[in-house]
Automatic annotation (TrEMBL):
<feature type="domain" description="Winged helix-turn-helix transcription repressor HrcA DNA-binding">
    <location>
        <begin position="24"/>
        <end position="90"/>
    </location>
</feature>
<keyword id="KW-0804">Transcription</keyword>
<feature type="domain" description="Heat-inducible transcription repressor HrcA C-terminal">
    <location>
        <begin position="128"/>
        <end position="350"/>
    </location>
</feature>
<dbReference type="InterPro" id="IPR029016">
    <property type="entry name" value="GAF-like_dom_sf"/>
</dbReference>
<keyword id="KW-0805">Transcription regulation</keyword>
<dbReference type="Pfam" id="PF01628">
    <property type="entry name" value="HrcA"/>
</dbReference>
<keyword id="KW-0678">Repressor</keyword>
<dbReference type="InterPro" id="IPR036390">
    <property type="entry name" value="WH_DNA-bd_sf"/>
</dbReference>
<protein>
    <recommendedName>
        <fullName>Heat-inducible transcription repressor HrcA</fullName>
    </recommendedName>
</protein>
<dbReference type="InterPro" id="IPR021153">
    <property type="entry name" value="HrcA_C"/>
</dbReference>
<comment type="function">
    <text>Negative regulator of class I heat shock genes (grpE-dnaK-dnaJ and groELS operons). Prevents heat-shock induction of these operons.</text>
</comment>
<dbReference type="InterPro" id="IPR002571">
    <property type="entry name" value="HrcA"/>
</dbReference>
<dbReference type="InterPro" id="IPR036388">
    <property type="entry name" value="WH-like_DNA-bd_sf"/>
</dbReference>
<dbReference type="InterPro" id="IPR005104">
    <property type="entry name" value="WHTH_HrcA_DNA-bd"/>
</dbReference>
<dbReference type="Pfam" id="PF03444">
    <property type="entry name" value="WHD_HrcA"/>
</dbReference>
<dbReference type="InterPro" id="IPR023120">
    <property type="entry name" value="WHTH_transcript_rep_HrcA_IDD"/>
</dbReference>
<keyword id="KW-0346">Stress response</keyword>
Length: 370
């Protein structure tokens, strides 16, 4: 990913090119940029002496303090303690990300780790996505989120019904990318192993290469044409099994969360531990997060959500860096992301998330061609 600016996480923020950034002269911009960079690196309030030593031009600590006071008045900085240094506010972080952040190139070591995971040639797409999540959390030292593909849009390879008793059966559907869906359901009364085989044979004869939606239409046409040939029990089972997959409440994607332990440091203060506990509670609501990531798929490229911009994580004061990935038809089918404290190393994490999303999309596209 070339150096540049990632997309804003919320349309409410229009910092770049707006009066608030235009008001900053060159010195103010440098003080602000260096303060935020130091804060993101250490997590500690930054004082005027530290900034004075880092400034390009020779200035006095008093001059830097005056600039910091101006920035605080503008709502970009905050002083957590009376005599301490400053930290950026959420508004300040948004300004930094939108207008001053320099996204670095992906370093060779991070690239090699991602390549090794994504190119592991796992036959099972679910296992591969688990590995991607684990690798992403390990590389970034944050928690990773991986929203797997929505397989109602993927071509079907094979379908099977497996009896598990008088009132239970397993519906198995294999997709062309190697992903397998297993769903327990209650089959219509009176089903026999023979009727289940007949139903599966009927479906497999017309299913290959079709999505579930396309298969549903094909089934209606075929049943109308072959009503006399198809056993009534098999026909009822087909209707029940396909309805199971087509049910709007039955979601066909899975959210994988990895690396929560990375968010707790050995030296964490009580307030930080409370924040992380709140974050863990948020992460338990996986359905809500998956819904949120689907909203994040509305635009291409990496997006950054800071603090309360992301309503799911507003209480924990966390940030989310997320990017959708696409299939061969350039359709967004999932997302990968990293969540952590607002002092994330955005310049390093943005290219990691972007590169991982691109590789996952390419892998899924290649498997779809196979």
């Amino acid at each position: 990913m070339p150096k540049g600016k990632p997309e804003r996480g919320s349309d409410e923020w229009h910092m770049a090119g707006s009066p608030i950034i235009d008001e900053l002269n060159e010195r103010s911009r440098e003080v602000f940029r260096r303060l935020v960079e130091a804060y993101l690196e250490t997590g500690e309030p930054v004082g005027s002496r530290t900034l004075t030593e880092a400034m390009t031009e020779k200035v006095s600590p008093a001059t830097v303090r005056n600039v910091m006071q101006d920035l605080e008045f503008m709502g970009l900085l905050n002083s957590p303690h009376v005599s301490a240094g400053r930290v950026p506010t959420q508004t300040g972080l948004r300004l930094f990300v939108d207008g001053l952040l320099e996204v670095s190139d992906l370093n060779a070591d991070d690239r090699a780790k991602i390549d090794a995971t994504v190119k592991s040639n796992s036959a099972d797409m679910g296992t591969l996505m688990d590995r991607v999540g684990a690798a992403l959390s390990g590389i970034t030292a944050g928690a990773s989120l991986v929203l797997t593909p929505k397989h109602e849009e993927a071509p079907i390879s094979h379908i099977e019904f497996v009896p598990l008793g008088a009132e239970r059966a397993l519906a198995v559907i294999v997709f062309s990318d190697g992903h397998v869906e297993n769903r327990l359901f209650h089959p219509p009364a009176g089903q026999t192993p023979a009727s289940m085989r007949e139903a599966a044979n009927f479906l497999n004869a017309i299913a290959e290469g079709k999505t579930i939606g396309e298969l549903r239409k094909a089934i209606e046409t075929e049943i109308a044409a072959r009503r006399q040939e198809l056993d009534g029990l098999a026909q009822e089972l087909i209707d029940t099994g396909i309805a199971l997959w087509m049910d709007e409440e039955g979601r066909h994607e899975r959210l994988i969360v990895r690396g929560r332990a990375n968010l707790i440091s050995s030296g964490a203060e009580a307030v930080d531990l409370d924040r992380v506990k709140t974050l863990f509670d948020d992460l338990e609501r996986k359905r809500d997060i998956a819904d949120f990531l689907e909203l994040a798929e509305s635009a291409e490229g990496v997006r950054i959500f800071i603090g309360s911009e992301n309503k799911l994580f507003s209480l924990s004061g966390s940030s989310l860096v997320v990017s959708p990935y696409m299939n061969a038809d350039r359709k967004i089918i999932g997302a990968v992301g990293v969540i952590g404290p607002t002092r994330l190393n955005y310049g390093r994490i943005v290219p990691i998330v972007d590169y991982t999303a691109q590789l996952v999309g390419k892998l899924i596209s290649d498997r779809g061609k196979g």
